[in-house]
Amino acid sequence: MKKLKRLAALGTAAVLAAGVLTGCGGGKADTTAPAPDSSADAAAAGDTAAAGDAASVEKIDLVFSHINAETHTWHKMAVKFKELIEEKSGGNITVTIYPNNQLGSEIETVQSAIAGMGDCDIVLTGESMQTYVEELGIIGMPYAITSDEHMEAVLNGEVGAELDSLMLSAGLRNLGAVRRGPRNITSNKEIHSPDDLQGFIIRTPESSMTMAAFNAMGAKPTPMAFSEIFTSLQQGVIHGQENPLANIFDASLYEVQDYVIETEHLRAWVYMAISEARFSSFSPAAQAMIQECATEAINYEHELFLEEEASLKSTLEEKGMTFIEVDQAPFKEKAVAGVLEVLTDRQKAIYEKMVAADPAAQ
Questions:
Q1: Which of 25, 231, 237, 282 qualifies as a cystine partner to 286, CB 3.0-4.6 A?
Q2: Contact 205, 130 (CB under 8 A)
């Protein structure tokens, strides 16, 4: 089991950036190939040192951690990144991939990346970043994004630039956004309205907004690590959970859940992010190469995602799950009202910009 090293030697700056630092657990690494996306500073660095010039790149060992199985498109993205960077750097930059929470939960690996000690360098993270900067929790605002076009407008506009800056202030550099499918509820009973969620124990990520949304709908949100969902459902600790279809399939939740409730309560993304402490220590050529390969890998993942998303519903139906189409309006009304009560003024300001960016409303 790989252990995070040198935690006792963390400096005051790292502690202030990360909060309470905890080590990543360990596991057997996936040492097969690549993954994702983009950054303005690294692109600018390419003007002074060609990204494709392997001879100008120093020796770097990168550790890439994510929470999903090897069958998930996120893992395939990580493999693509590994393949690209190792080829373009002539082997000077190597990547070791740890899927399936092998290095710990998302929060633990994010803490490690912020610390910048090299035990965990690249992570996939989203609204959980509110642990460090509260505004970043807005990524998890239910029903804030209404379509794929709306998401693109947000990510490529004023809000996207603002969130990038907030990520950097937390100690992580955004290499690019990885789009996710809409999140739906799964259960072992039919759910047609928020009234059917009364007393329903549902696993959620560690997101105050998601928890507030389900509280407002009458459910009992219970945050836990993604890796604990299957066993908790199997043992009846929780009644259901909510995730995109890809995660429902990859975690084999069809074995312990009968229904997918099409609430589509959250359309969001995660960032492929790298430790800023580590990234800033690399040469301009290495920075440019990492950014270039990340962008290419994220684009690769998005194509895979679109292909899989089109067939996931029928695949889960073949596995025995029943999809229930619901009127999303009452779910949205309760969820949004509940979350607005807990948003800070700064979060509300970003939320209003997100809503205003919807092309359908212009």
A1: 282
A2: no
